[in-house]
Amino acid sequence: MLGGGLVAGGVVLVAGEPGIGKSTLLLDVAARAARGGRDVLYVSGEESAAQVRSRAERIEAMAKTLYLASETDLGTVLGQIEQVRPALVVIDSVQTLASAEVEGAAGNVSQVREVAAALIAVAKTMGISMILVGHVTKEGSIAGPRILEHLVDVVVGFEGERHSRLRLVRAVKNRFGPTDEVGCFDLSDVGIIGLPDPSGLFLSTRAGSVPGTCVTATLEGRRPLLAEVQALVTPSSIPTPRRATHGVDGSRIAMITAVLEKRAGAPLTGRDIYLSTVGGVRLREPAADLAMAFAMASAILEVPIDPHLVAIGEVGLAGEIRPVQGVERRLTEAARLRFSTALVPPGVRGSAALPSGIRVIEVPDIQAAVGHLQRVAEQPRAELRPVR
């Protein structure tokens, strides 16, 4: 995700919500660097040395050349760096350090600016790779002055839902490499484990198919991931029907609902709509529109969708299905996971990069997509059994 590794003299800012696993991830990174024969200094301003050691033992991140300091004074930390002269320094976190030369408590704008500038100057002068942990505000932005993001070389966001095991690491800014790569990790009892193939986390493990479920292929950076969308449509008992979503944008669902009702004649007035993703994944890109619309149509018609079908496409206000980027990569991932049919926007079938073993059905608009589902509903029920 960093484009090949940490650069000597480079400073990486890692931001994320409290308790999401930043310290666990960076302690593992520090231990791996130490096992490679390098001296590493891990500075914790939030926990005692005993607490950090206990976590290191639990996640098996102990190493002979991994040095630990529990300190909040900037001058003391700089002296420890001068004494150890490590190849990598982890500061957890930059908001907990304070300089005696600046007035104010640790974490205010002046302190964060002074602390960051001093640490970055040491990293550049001594050729040390440095990782700074940054807190985030309620709005999700990095706490402290905006100049902090400009001073560092790399800004990384650590994301994930508290109730989900999945953690994503995104590069927001990177002077040394790409910003379109994403690292996927599984947060478990033994620490954080890299996931080379995380698609299975977002697919349900039912034996058969039920109405209201559809699989889509989303792109996290350059990595295609298959995710399942589930919809439930029921008659409402209140004057204003409920619209509850989890893992998807509520305003996007409201738009798709209106398009389904206006362009495809779906009877959604007076009905509660619940829509969620499997595994806690968040679907941000418009390529998941068709799968969400298909799941809602399946729930209305009470027709199960083929469990080996994947739907990809953006839904426009006129009901048209718009093309999306990286369709070939998405279909290649679907074919690898043994999906046999794909609903896609027009113009995809002629591509030479399409994988073999998957049947591509182009749907120009939402009416055609719902019509495909209605034709399945008219078939004998024996043909609706899932492929086993």
UniProtKB/TrEMBL annotation:
GO CC, one annotated term: cytosol
Domain of life, source organism: Bacteria
InterPro entries: AAA+_ATPase, DNA_repair_RadA, P-loop_NTPase, RecA_ATP-bd, Ribosomal_Su5_D2-typ_SF, Ribsml_uS5_D2-typ_fold_subgr
Keyword DNA repair part of the UniProt annotation: yes
Gene3D superfamilies according to UniProt: 3.30.230.10, P-loop containing nucleotide triphosphate hydrolases
Keyword terms of this UniProt record: ATP-binding, DNA damage, DNA repair, DNA-binding, Hydrolase, Metal-binding, Nucleotide-binding, Stress response, Zinc, Zinc-finger
Molecular-function GO term, any one: damaged DNA binding
Protein's GO biological process: recombinational repair
Pfam families for the chain: AAA_25, ChlI
All copies of domain RecA family profile, residue ranges: 1-136
Primary role: DNA-dependent ATPase involved in processing of recombination intermediates, plays a role in repairing DNA breaks. Stimulates the branch migration of RecA-mediated strand transfer reactions, allowing the 3' invading strand to extend heteroduplex DNA faster. Binds ssDNA in the presence of ADP but not other nucleotides, has ATPase activity that is stimulated by ssDNA and various branched DNA structures, but inhibited by SSB. Does not have RecA's homology-searching function.
UniProt similarity note: Belongs to the RecA family. RadA subfamily.
Family matches, as NCBIfam families: sms
The protein's name: DNA repair protein RadA
